[in-house]
Amino acid sequence: MDVFRFVSLPCEYEIGLGIPVKGKLLKQHTIPPRIEAAKDVRSLTESMRYIGFQGRMLAAVVDVWAKMLKREYNVIFLGLAGAMVPAGMRRMISHLIKRRMIDVLVSTGANLYHDTFEALGGHHYMGSAHANDVQLRRNRIDRIYDVFADEDKFYKLDLTIQKKFAQMLIDNYPYSSREILIELGKMLSEKAREKDSIVLSAYDTGVPIFCPAIGDSSLGFSIMFANRAGRSIRVDGLKDVHESSLITQRAPRTGVIYIGGGVPKNFIQQTAVVASYQTRHDKSHDSAIQITTDMPMWGGLSGCTFEEAQSWGKIGPRAKMAVCYCDATIALPIVANALNQRFPKIRRNIPEFTWKDSGLELNFHMEKL
Amino acid sequence: MDVFRFVSLPCEYEIGLGIPVKGKLLKQHTIPPRIEAAKDVRSLTESMRYIGFQGRMLAAVVDVWAKMLKREYNVIFLGLAGAMVPAGMRRMISHLIKRRMIDVLVSTGANLYHDTFEALGGHHYMGSAHANDVQLRRNRIDRIYDVFADEDKFYKLDLTIQKKFAQMLIDNYPYSSREILIELGKMLSEKAREKDSIVLSAYDTGVPIFCPAIGDSSLGFSIMFANRAGRSIRVDGLKDVHESSLITQRAPRTGVIYIGGGVPKNFIQQTAVVASYQTRHDKSHDSAIQITTDMPMWGGLSGCTFEEAQSWGKIGPRAKMAVCYCDATIALPIVANALNQRFPKIRRNIPEFTWKDSGLELNFHMEKL
Amino acid sequence: MDVFRFVSLPCEYEIGLGIPVKGKLLKQHTIPPRIEAAKDVRSLTESMRYIGFQGRMLAAVVDVWAKMLKREYNVIFLGLAGAMVPAGMRRMISHLIKRRMIDVLVSTGANLYHDTFEALGGHHYMGSAHANDVQLRRNRIDRIYDVFADEDKFYKLDLTIQKKFAQMLIDNYPYSSREILIELGKMLSEKAREKDSIVLSAYDTGVPIFCPAIGDSSLGFSIMFANRAGRSIRVDGLKDVHESSLITQRAPRTGVIYIGGGVPKNFIQQTAVVASYQTRHDKSHDSAIQITTDMPMWGGLSGCTFEEAQSWGKIGPRAKMAVCYCDATIALPIVANALNQRFPKIRRNIPEFTWKDSGLELNFHMEKL
Amino acid sequence: MDVFRFVSLPCEYEIGLGIPVKGKLLKQHTIPPRIEAAKDVRSLTESMRYIGFQGRMLAAVVDVWAKMLKREYNVIFLGLAGAMVPAGMRRMISHLIKRRMIDVLVSTGANLYHDTFEALGGHHYMGSAHANDVQLRRNRIDRIYDVFADEDKFYKLDLTIQKKFAQMLIDNYPYSSREILIELGKMLSEKAREKDSIVLSAYDTGVPIFCPAIGDSSLGFSIMFANRAGRSIRVDGLKDVHESSLITQRAPRTGVIYIGGGVPKNFIQQTAVVASYQTRHDKSHDSAIQITTDMPMWGGLSGCTFEEAQSWGKIGPRAKMAVCYCDATIALPIVANALNQRFPKIRRNIPEFTWKDSGLELNFHMEKL
Fold it and tell me: What is the pLDDT of residue D357?
């Protein structure tokens, strides 16, 4: 196959070259939105359906997500990467959990750590991307692009995790990260000052959270410090794979939403591969959304297209898909608000997860939210 | 701390290392937005003021633009690059012109050509970025990412420009692109079926449009075809420089807004350099906005920061600046709607341009819009 | 057509679904390069042919360029955008011109201005992208990402252009930018201290240079200052379109190389459209290379794929194409050195351009370089 | 002026505004490289030292890496993310390990899986980024951008891991990923057909490999399948944190090299934080390199600058740093070859890692390579 060669319109168009297909291809013209049309965020996104480029894709994200919510017996995964909590996205994610617009969360450790930090009353601060970082260091201020944080306050949380949270965990038990995060939710249910917490909302609503690289965060290393001080707490990475793929195995269908890429994306994609291996049926994801600033050209999993994922059987051949190339701190507020305005009430078949030993029972119940 | 300010920690912090500055640096914490807060697009952007990353910058774009509108005797330039009209942004730009949220437009030729095309009743179509382009070619369909267009219809417009529009122009006169575009506006004022046209709105409201690389578009080459058929129409690139820089020379202050980079950005930036040379005063732009997907790392003018522009004296040392890295088809609908909801009425000192020979008289009059 | 739908392998594969095509698709395995294999830059690029991602594309750029050089009666255009001269690429471009690895140059004004500046003995300086630009301004130092320049020296060149160079030009003649740049080459042939100049090399070898937005640069505004002081120099943008498209009309075939996008890319692409209109034959470019950091997702012409260009008839349906997403200051040194090592001698049919009135005579002569 | 230094103009310049500092800032002019200068890859990179933009940064990467190699008692970490092995980078990484240009590897699971696959005789194939993925799926071909692979062959490796490799592991032992990967190296030392394997080279030379998200890969899920079939293999994510941070604790100094970001980058960065907490000394990394296509503007850890990392104490305040924004499949071949040509022989103090229980003994011995 010629490396430089491009591919084709469906065969019907190929076969009869003489047939005028222009009419088939030029069916719906674009509709340049009038400014007055956007009364609220929902109508803003609706006015963007018939434009071009990433604006159209943003509208498509809302539409595909809406379809996910209407789809029966659908389990919706959210993969969350990037410093979304320091950037102020905590309450939105929490809202999506509470209103069950997502059913399973896979996150980096940092987002869960920063969420816990804010839940316990901590703050991130308005900073500048142009600060002199050596001087920030001297002041024990940590920078996350244009957000600042007080390292001394982080240090207190680290101690809390190491000294108090670790006491809630038992030695030599192979924890999945999901199990660890239930314990963290339990702690927050007692201590949180701020209730719009991701970890706490998930705990309250029974939404499982996986953090497959939990060691790779302050959350992980603070627990590790307890081990250095004599404990033997274990977080078993393989158990995460087992549990998460069980969900996809048991679910009649699955939808996936990726904010950023990284481990959360790959990990959720992988559940389809594992579930298909195990069941010998096609358990590819049924609908898929990605909001990313990464690009396919670099060949990495974070930026790869859903089409590429179809070749692996991670995404189904007829899946509804929408990829929007945009910073999530722009796209998520729009999408979350648009969904909220579109569904002031939702009535969904909500999945309920019952974990026994290492088995999973998955039931659905209808809920109005 | 002002979010929009370039913050290198002031020298005082250097000198007295013992002084606790943490409190000064951690003044305003971030405020994670609640979903319920965003009633409309305006409140959406306001809820994003105290978050991080590009979401914050989008809110900053609205705030800086609002300041431009409130600033007295301010001439606001808009630089427009990228296929904004095929992507459906025509009515928004037209709205910004009619409500005088901008005063001067510098555009690529393509946007003006496609605007003329839609004004005369033409359409762009919903397409796919994955189409087989060789087959599109066979059907005489042109693709602009995920937008399709009917080449035969473009061809008719080309003929109209060559045969009819060219008749409105005189031979051997050194036109600036501004003068050409007034003639185009005149033609549209008679023939346009669709009134929300950029060229027409500018003509109606007296907003000058410059197209410094007019030859580099279907608009340009269609006029050139008239020359090949015996005419001697001239578009003098130097006259554009002269006229545009006169505006910055005469204006008490200038604000600049860049959608994309390219020639429009550089051309508007350059007016500050020319005006400063000529007047021997600092005529750097007073406030500046950029919405771009280009990056500073590649060293080009399109992606360069406004800080870099300050070293050249193009942007003032105390200018209000906001750069948002985002596809304009996402950012512009948000920003334009937010501004519209924020200013249901505007009362501005509107600049009026009177061109005599090659001189410019600039007057301001108060207008309610 | 479904917007979200992806397209297909050639029909043969469609028709017989039972046919095992895996073997056809998995023909050539990748060959991970050994480090020892890369003796020189040529062998480095050859060792990258059978890898993946942009590394493979870089090797493809060299291979497609080599094919262009071997192709008979081929006119090779180079489009040059971005601050390539300040970044140190001057001698490489000059080398490509002298050895006739390109035949026509289309450039931004800035590159030609900075080239002239260095040819006359000026320098750019090693700077930092993290400098405080307000302080640079106070020192009259201009910054281009991590390159500094002495504004006072630029000012001297501006005066030279305004006072001396303008004297070489006549009033009221509609110059194309090509004609202006021949005059500039003439000036440099007398005054240049540094001979590896782009403008000078092009002058010496008869390679035409177009600068379609010449007004949009210090070169342009300095000539304009002469007009403000009483001269009437005219640069006619339409004449550029005419002349450049004549080349594509007359040439048996054309190859195009784009370093960055912007006006140079669109302008060269457009010559194919104009030439096809005029000749009623397919005059699309026969081979095409792009080195860019822009992306197709934003819908702009700079970042668009050559496939998109095929839908417009700008690039031929069977063209050899290679797009490499990479900063040109990395890719160009590799590609230029690899080509040089691959062709220590070239024997090419070199196009010779004879301009009469506004007509063009195009002849080829065999040359060893 | 040191190119690699973060330059905010020192305070002295602020204070005395009258002092002419231009001379201090414009010390070293750029040197546009001649094409003839690049005899080999080393001289290519050396010719790029005095240019601008990312080309200069590529030269800086080689220079900073060379300094790392010359630095005494330095432990060099490599973080490896992205599909580098499918893209053909396996032998280069293997070479860097064998010649001890790196001392510790932190990788995604996918790279180690694909390395094992190729070591056992498997192949990746030249494909196309434009293929129809649904049809690839039907043929059981997996696509990684423009690389194809035979899924049936992957399946065999999965079975080998599940059935045979898992037998080398014991139940209920809390493995670190490092320990797992030693066992994998052992298996490859017997079975590998291709000796230039990353896992095997690391095994042979005693270079530890960490894979903190090992569950997030075919390697991980294949071991998990053994558990589903009755085994109780545990991979303890906390142990990885413990062991990796011990290295940074014990090492007199550390250098870090990141190809891509993701978990490998954060994980290595984090060792400095943990080591500093534990030792109450500044254990920030002493020198740092990053080759990435991610950007700081999105606020994520993958794309963040080393300056930002300095605010956290991950990178030292006086660290030598070089960040090059470039696809690694372009940059790595250049850098690895340039280093190899610059150091035909290396004499380095090589760290030797002796792990006892969960403690680490770190010794250095001089080696010629």
Answer: 81
DSSP H stretches of helix in D71-149 = 90-98, 109-119, 133-138
Inspect the interface and report whether the beta carbons of C337 and D26 lie closer than 8 Å: no
The answer to whether C44 touches C338, Cβ cutoff 8 Å, is: yes
pLDDT, average across residues C37-61: 96
> Could you give the CA distance from residue D254 to residue D251 in angstroms, rounded to a whole number?
7
Report residue C112 as tokens. Answer: 């030609």
CA A73 to chain B, closest CA, distance in angstroms equals: 26
Q: Exactly one of B314, B320, B345, B356 is catalytic; which is it?
A: B314
Confidence of residue A20 (pLDDT cuts 50, 70, 90): low
Q: What is the pLDDT of residue D27?
A: 93
Q: How far is C41 from chain D (nearest CA, A)?
A: 6
Residue pair A149/B52 in contact by the 8 Å Cβ criterion: no
Active-site positions of C read 314
At residue D13 the predicted structure's pLDDT band, cuts being 50, 70 and 90, is: very low
Q: Which residues of D111-129 are buried (b: 16+ CB within 10 A; e: fewer)?
A: bbbbbbbbbbebbbbbbbb
**Which residue of chain B comes nearest to A149, CA vs CA?**
B26
pLDDT at C14: 37
Q: What is the DSSP string of D152-200?
A: HHHHHHHHHHHHTGGGGS-TT-EE-HHHHHHHHHHHHHHH-S-S--HHH
Residue type, B289: I
C9 falls in which pLDDT band (50, 70, 90)? very low
**Beta carbons of C312 and B151 less than 8 Å apart:** yes
The percent of residues above 90 in pLDDT, for chain A, comes to: 91
pLDDT in tens, D301-347: 999 999 999 999 999 999 999 999 999 999 999 999 999 999 999 99
- For D130, residues 6+ apart whose C-beta sits below 8 A from its C-beta are A5, A6, A7, C307
User: Can you read off the two tokens belonging to residue A321?
Assistant: 């898909």
pLDDT of B12 over the 90 cut: no
In this prediction, residue B358 carries a pLDDT of 77
Region C132-149: mean pLDDT is 96
Answer yes or no: A314 catalytic: yes
Element (H, E) at D142: strand D141-144
Residue D5 scores a pLDDT above 70: no
Integer Cα distance of C158 and D3 in angstroms:
30
Residues A357 and D156: their CA atoms lie apart, in Å, by 30
Q: Which residues of C touch A (CB under 8 A)?
A: 1, 3-4, 6-11, 14-15, 24-25, 27, 52-54, 56, 60, 295, 297-299, 307, 310, 320-322, 325
**In chain D, what residues touch B15 (CB-CB under 8 Å)?**
11
Residue of chain C whose alpha carbon sits nearest to that of A13:
C11
Give the model's pLDDT for residue D19.
52
Beta strand A359-368 with B147-150: parallel, antiparallel or unpaired?
unpaired
Calculate the CA dihedral of residues B186, B190, B196, B202 and round it to 10 degrees. 10
Rounded to the nearest 5 degrees, what angle is found at the Cα of C267, between the Cα atoms of C266 and C271?
110
Contacting residues for C145 by C-beta, under 8 A, at least 6 apart: B296, B297, B298, B299, B304, B308, C83, C129, D52, D53
Nearest residue of chain A to residue B115 (CA atoms):
A32
> What secondary structure letter does DSSP report for B250?
H
- Residues C338 and D329: their CA atoms lie apart, in Å, by 17
Largest CA distance in chain B: 79
Residue B19's φ and ψ, nearest 5 degrees, are -65, 130
Tell me which of D314, D320, D356, D368 is the catalytic residue. Answer: D314
Assess contact for C97 and C202: CB atoms under 8 A. yes
Q: Which amino acid makes up residue D247?
A: I
CA distance to partner chain B, nearest, from residue D298 (Å): 6
